[in-house]
Amino acid sequence: MKELYLKTSQELSALLTTRYSTSFSLGIKVFPNEIRRAIFSIYGFVRIADEIVDTFYEHDQRVLLNDFKQQTEEAIKKKVSTNPILHSFQNVVHQYNIDLDYIESFFHSMEMDLEKVSYSYDLYQKYIYGSAEVVGLMCLKVFCQHNEPLFEELKPFAMKLGSAYQKVNFLRDIQADYELRGRIYFPQIDNKEKWTNDIKKVLESDIEKEFLEALVGIKRLPKSCQFANYLVFLYYQALLSQIKKVDIRKLFQKRISVSFFKKIALLFKAFAVTKFIWR
Q1: Of 28, 64, 26, 33, whose CA–CA distance to 48 is shortest?
Q2: How far is CA 233 from each of CA 28, 123, 161, 208, rounded to the nearest angstrom?
Q3: How far apart are CA 44 and CA 37, in angstroms?
Q4: Residues whose CB is less than 8 angstroms from the CB of residue 217 and which lie 6 or more positions away in sequence, other chains included
Q5: With respect to CATH, is domain 116-127+141-279 assigned 1.10.600.10?
């Protein structure tokens, strides 16, 4: 029955991730079974923490986040949890020997979301590390399948990729972050009036540079992981392309997205490139 509970916990993590991110889940679903279950378990865990800090305004979010953090620590320590999402996550932590410092850094960034922070460059980098780069490193642990030399080789690329994805998310969600949550993550910008298209272009250039660096790492991943990772990479690249076409004021009025038909085209492109071009 332990196996049934774990399987059910993994399925619930997959359901949670899919309900909140259909596009990202599309990439996860093309992984091989074992890897897919592990990545869904990581993102199910991340999703709950995100939800606490992003939407539970009618509750004491700090209490909820601290409680979730304590539950996570207990789940990892005891190797079991009555919270199915945490049960599937702790299984991945132990199975792939995920560094507990990554989890601590993740929670630290979530705690930053509960405060009105005026971001310096150092705080901005610290937030991105904990909210995105460590998540990429957790996933990389799964992709490398206990091959530690490969993990160490690919760490810088995974961090660049996580950083690029997060910065795209910042631009895509700039309206909701500012109007609903009172957040602007970018250094030295504490209100939307300070935004200009020139600042937007600098950030877009920074993201494009990180994409180029990260692509080197995707090509060095085990073959079984290239298709899914490249698919998500192409999706975020397309999202950035859409954002680049829009004036900064429009970003504060409308959330940019990639069309369904474009996503299907990217699916075929990712398959063709990883199957027939990358050797």
Answers
A1: 64
A2: 12, 26, 8, 11
A3: 10
A4: 154, 156, 157, 158, 160, 161
A5: yes
- Structure token pair of residue 188: 């030295």
Mean model confidence pLDDT for the chain: 93
- Do the beta carbons of residue 199 and residue 210 sit within 8 Å? no
Instruction: State the residue for tokens 């619930």.
Output: 12
Question: Where, residue-wise, is CATH 1.10.600.10 in the chain?
Answer: 116-127+141-279
The tokens describing 171, both together, are: 């631009």
Task: Report residue 148 CA to chain centroid gap.
Answer: 22
How far apart CA 101 and CA 107 sit, in angstroms, is 10
Residue 182, C-beta contacts closer than 8 angstroms, at least 6 positions apart: 116
What's the whole-model pTM score?
0.94
Torsions phi, psi for 190 (to 5 deg): -110, 0
In this structure, is the dihedral angle defined by the CA atoms of residues 72, 163, 22 and 2, taken in order, positive or negative?
A: negative
Write the pLDDT tens digit of every residue in 162-218. Answer: 999 999 998 998 888 877 787 778 876 767 777 888 889 999 999 999 999 999 999
Residue 275's H or E segment, with its range, is: none
184 — alpha (psi -120 to 50), left (phi > 0) or beta?
beta
The DSSP line for 7-27 is HHHHHHHHHHHHHH-HHHHHH
